[in-house]
Amino acid sequence: MIRKKIIAGNWKMNKTTTETKTLVLAIKDKLGKFDQVEVVICPPFTALQTAQEALGSHSDVALGAQNLHQAAGGAYTGEISAAMLRDLFCRYVILGHSERRQYFAESDALVNEKARVALKSNLRPIICVGETLAEREAGHMATVVTAQTKGSCAGFSKEDWNNVVIAYEPVWAIGTGKTATPAQAQEVHALIRKTIKQITGKPIADKLRIQYGGSVKPDNARELLNQPDIDGALVGGASLDAESFVAIIKNSVAT
Ligand code: 13P
Asked: How much is the pTM?
């Protein structure tokens, strides 16, 4: 099964509009015409429009957001709806990132609700799962990742699955410089695919793209992305610099 790789940049709470314009133009310039992998950038809400304008209407780079609110609209001060993101030409939305689970108490049930809203609104969710260091050291990695995967992805239709991406991000590897080894990452990716296979069957599990995230850099991208069940990367820090982000994209193609 050939799955087109997907490399997404999660900018987190970084970049003003001026910085966004500079970064997007530099990414476009360094990337050139390159359609071997799918590329997504996820700036903060405040920079989505600037990013979209800098990408232009014919760009190969897709736009994503980092979160949404599950309600269609109304009295939710400070929140952003799926329709607002579609209005800004977002195609993807990151959901259930460990920082949202940790700092904003997002549960699997809430992530699932948001994912269903995203899918109904024509937004493709990138659903994040991953264990903490304490959970791994206690031998609970498989239980935690399986429960998060099942809980966050409950009730999707066959059509929905065509538009879902899962990102495995071990919490202990995020922003720490500690990457999972390719073998460690592959083990968990295979577990996630097996879990999805049990829920939906082999054809959907075989098509599903599963990204790895956690200290992905140009020099470790190739080996990680050569693993059979690793179909892309969700890149934090290294996506804030055009040179390193584009190097990861180019290194993700098997040679
Ligand atoms: P880093 O690449 O900075 O470790 O962040 C990973 C991440 O959280 C992407 O969503």
From this structure: 0.97
